[in-house]
Probable phosphoketolase
Amino acid sequence: MTSLDRIDAYWRAANYLSVGQIYLLDNPLLTEPLRPEHIKPRLLGHWGTTPGLNFCFAHLNRVIAERDQDMIYIAGPGHGGPAAVAHAWLEGTYSDRYPEVSQDADGMRRLFRQFSFPGGIPSHVAPEVPGSMHEGGELGYSLAHAFGAAFDNPGLVVACVVGDGEAETGPLAASWHSNKFLDPARDGVVLPILHLNGYKIANPTVLARIPEEDLVKLMEGYGYRPHVVAGDDPAQMHALMARTLDTVFEQITDYREGRDGRLPMIVLRTPKGWTGPKTVDGLPVEGTWRSHQVPLSAVRDNDEHRAMLEEWMRSYRPQELFDADGRPVPEVLGTVPEGGRRMSANAHVNGGEVLRPLVLPDFRKYAVQVDKPAGGSSEPTKVLGAWLREVIEANPRTFRLMGPDETASNRLSAVFEATDRAWNAQVLPTDEHLGAGGRVMEVLSEHLCQGWLEGYLLTGRHGLFNCYEAFIHIVDAMFNQHAKWLQSSKKIPWRRPVASLNYLLSSHVWRQDHNGFSHQDPGFLDVVVNKKASVVRVYLPPDANTLLSTADHCLRSRDYVNVIVAGKQPVLDLMSMEEAVAHCTRGLGVLEWACTDAGAEPDVVLACAGDVPTLETLAAAALLREHLPELRVRVVNVVDLMRLQPASEHPHGMSDAEFDTLFTADKPIIFNFHGYPWLIHRLTYRRNGHDNLHVRGYKEEGTTTTPFDMAMLNDIDRYHLVMDVIDRVPHLAGRTAHLRQRMVDARLRARAHTREFGEDPAEIRDWSWPY
Amino acid sequence: MTSLDRIDAYWRAANYLSVGQIYLLDNPLLTEPLRPEHIKPRLLGHWGTTPGLNFCFAHLNRVIAERDQDMIYIAGPGHGGPAAVAHAWLEGTYSDRYPEVSQDADGMRRLFRQFSFPGGIPSHVAPEVPGSMHEGGELGYSLAHAFGAAFDNPGLVVACVVGDGEAETGPLAASWHSNKFLDPARDGVVLPILHLNGYKIANPTVLARIPEEDLVKLMEGYGYRPHVVAGDDPAQMHALMARTLDTVFEQITDYREGRDGRLPMIVLRTPKGWTGPKTVDGLPVEGTWRSHQVPLSAVRDNDEHRAMLEEWMRSYRPQELFDADGRPVPEVLGTVPEGGRRMSANAHVNGGEVLRPLVLPDFRKYAVQVDKPAGGSSEPTKVLGAWLREVIEANPRTFRLMGPDETASNRLSAVFEATDRAWNAQVLPTDEHLGAGGRVMEVLSEHLCQGWLEGYLLTGRHGLFNCYEAFIHIVDAMFNQHAKWLQSSKKIPWRRPVASLNYLLSSHVWRQDHNGFSHQDPGFLDVVVNKKASVVRVYLPPDANTLLSTADHCLRSRDYVNVIVAGKQPVLDLMSMEEAVAHCTRGLGVLEWACTDAGAEPDVVLACAGDVPTLETLAAAALLREHLPELRVRVVNVVDLMRLQPASEHPHGMSDAEFDTLFTADKPIIFNFHGYPWLIHRLTYRRNGHDNLHVRGYKEEGTTTTPFDMAMLNDIDRYHLVMDVIDRVPHLAGRTAHLRQRMVDARLRARAHTREFGEDPAEIRDWSWPY
């Protein structure tokens, strides 16, 4: 039996197992003619892409075995779940992970039955599938994930099948350029396989219908060496694919060894639903969009369809592939690699297996000295940048900082003392901090930043994504998919925890006065808290020291998405490092020095979350102390937003007793919030004090103006907070008309000053805590 | 004076006006040496891209004038606001729109002062700028907008400058392929100008640093005829650009007349901050990232910087460009087109000016016959599809249906009886419904669907975007930008209302049981309601007739974003057409036939929004009627979600009195909601009855399973609703233990059935209202 025969046997076996998963409840080896009760009542699955995925698996296995190549496989068409499952079962990994699905007839029956079946497994390449690190539920991210996996994994080849449907998406179209960020010396290699089966759901695909000359130019233009493998005759295609892969791996060696700057890639053109039914009910199926999901739809009730299914399955000659007990025969397994070389068992795709904790320098070293609360000021992200520099130095191969060209703008520039921006394209003499192997990844695509980071994390490394707050919405959908992956993975015993996905959102809504309305949106938090409490965390450190403490905490955590919102502009230093750590550990707390309640029951609670809202709240507290010295004011700052939720809703949630102790059950609470105000209501609506809660936040008012005018436009400014107190503390309303008018006047004066001079009044710009 | 001299004069004038906007408060014509008080205190603006934008404006004007060409201009680098403003002022449009900013010295002073100044205008190409239809706040959408504008505008050329920063984004990378969807006969033409100035914020750009051979291949691979215009000598560049544009417009004629299938495009390579300061403080500035925003930063305080600014501004020889009164001299205006041919005054970019209302066929013709409430069932989107077919027939040039290859999957296939999918690439004999000029736009990129539709709407046409619910999150950020554009535009008197952006979200969370967890996310609604109440509307029609009525309403509306969530699977027909119209007009109402409160005060209110939650609510009401016939149950269905808000928060909001009348102020309300449950809390937390409100909805539980199992996983199923009623109606709890246990058992039985047979029990699948 030749090598190609063995590949073909493996391919036929995988195809047989794929069809079986889509259709069969029982009779897995076709030991008797198919009867209706052997067929699933609801046929769910995607056949169209599956034979192509199986074809690639089969051929890559030969290369792995022959070259002892460390390789993983990303299936862009992740709805082709049957392929990945079949592969894992043939390689024995499925039975290792799920012993009840044994590698025999009984296991095959279970394998078929459980697929896309209630209580069974999902129809896509979900976390449940050994060998997967990419679900492909939402399309577009396979190639970015592949590059993320390859970074800092020299020796690894990431084979990435890109579907031609997926190839129409924006994120995928941009991902081809990831090769400009790959370092042949320090990184692994990505082998893209653009799989043109011609159709997406019901339509032809763009890349399958442009002239091949254009397609080749497109790939060359992206910087690759394309190889076209096209046809539908299995024997010819096996020979061509094997020959092409031999060439491709020689070119990969050249790339790795610096003889060629271009990566090879493969254009694989095969019929959709290859080897499936050619025509059904008089309509062409193989090679058309009708193969996308289930080519024969009435198999249970329609005898003719059922006979076609049986004929189709027998066309793979199962008797040559499995022994009487249902075990794959040696010829089928002839090209399957050993142990951890099996793509379904490769440790990289169960990243927690290879994860090493970060070496984290003591963040306390970078603390801002605070002798007096709110006496001085610092730029929080700048302070963080110094610590991140040391994080990068201490972890030269396991930590990356991603961002859409905003690392300097977000004032993290200290990192460039330790590293460069990753860059593998032309460098000019005037450039700064560009170089292969740089730890900072900057590309003006939030999709690529997110996709690379996900791939990097899921293969057992660490990172931080810094982004303008408004534009992180660009990856809302990617965040959703990643959070769902984490939630599902947590329930799978053999999936090991991976490092959390950490966002640092800076250049936030309150300091986008210069860029204007389009750059003002704090709503990512609302998207995040829709996801399961077990996987999401949100932090709003109000100053530099709390940011340091929060960042250290997040980089140590596992299996979460952590969102940190912190400004880059100077804010008051509120706490010493010791106080900051205590405050962050509690997640929220009273700023004693700003209170006038002397530890007793206050008249009003001023709560705040976020740096600018905290500043305005403190300024309001100072105004109240000056003008209403007898008023008992308590100031509460919230760092960990999830603390506000009931303990029943989130693991960080407070008990009602704690909540009442801090916020009171019956006193007015004026909550100055960084984001959209209703998020605070949503988190607290079951609390005793909720009826007394009044939240200020961003309400979609903004333009190009000054920082304080932005605050005033949205009524989060100090003067308006004082007015809110006056309006809500019952015994005040009558005797404070004069003060209220002063506040109104102060706002008008500030507005007029701004419009005349183009900047905020000096008393606003230079304000610090006066007590 | 040659034509090129006039172009150069115009360019210098535009550059002068751009620098003036960034820096000057006064002394606009430099009639005296610059003093500190002439300089703005905060310098905000983006110089880097501006001279390139001005260069393109200047040259395109010549072409317009010479060819009487209808042309509009999209500035992808939309932060180059000074350029667009300068252009509109030179063309006289600015003064037409804003008479106080006259075309003289006083107007120039105002023009400079107001830019990026509190109380003035934004720093970007915002809606305030005449001639703009694309802000470019968030990058990536210029080319998709351009194609959207070109569709169904034969004769129009949309010149689109794509920044090389923006070109790194996913949406832009995919947008190049829009040419496969353009019809040379029925559509206009897009002229992409890829402007390589080499840097984004602080980094080189990818496309500026790959070999030019690769770049040319990339553009050829995308299907264009690229022309490179590169250099930094103004005279040479003027000659080259003019020559190239002459060639390009000949090629455009060839394209239009069918002699050439490829569109030309231009690669324009010029220094960043071209003609600005070469070096500042010893560091290179022109041609580097340091030109990105404000090249000279200390102009007010630093005499040397101020002298450099003056020298820079005088380098444009303003005395040759403006007369003593500050009016542009005739030589500067020599290439400016007349009237509506001016790009800043072209009616297409103020789309409401050319908007014609849709011809809408009577949706009542398509009504499902309903003799008895909930007696039969229909597939709502399929019913809608038949009406949409007639909408398309009646509006053959002004309506398009967008979707990521899901039009058939979402059961709108009837439209293909009237039209094709737009397609301008290879067609095979097996293809169906592909053709140039098709009204259905299907590409597997939600970004492109959204971008095309935005461009189409903003130029005065109509459309509907149908999408899988979960994946509409892909365009969260684009929705945000569009909603902000609408909100800002509404405040600008000369901006005419445009057609609303209509989403039809189908294949929704409750019917993605087959695709599994990754396809289940109803959170787009949460993103939408963060935007200003004046521009967003959300509808959840529960059946086919209410969907028809809702869709008709949305297609007639202006300046909103309308979100309609409706299923494609069969649901019960609840209302006759007449009832549906009345129900949709009210936005919510009591389903009398399902109630047992006999019009009196109920014991419990069962509220619902969304088709599947409504079905389960009705089934729960039927169970209660059967088992607790004396219980007074009221069933309320909500179509228009915004009705739940207080009237003070949203124009559709109900008064508290109305709310109390419907929902009661003190009885338990069990609200079965389509989306995440807290959205209902957020909308109602100020209502009297809120403390009695208990909301069921999606809580991130799901996998590949059956529809009813999905409902059970999230506790929105009929049995659980009955349990909720038992637990919350005070006098019931004691004497209903038996019924409660029956519900628990029913759930267990349903679950077990599902896991054994792979489908829901027949009594669930076949359920209809039994009374």
Chain B is about 35% helix and 15% strand. Residues 363-571 of chain B form a domain with the Rossmann fold fold (CATH 3.40.50.970). Chain B touches chain A through 117 residues (CB under 8 Å). Chain B has a mean pLDDT of 96.
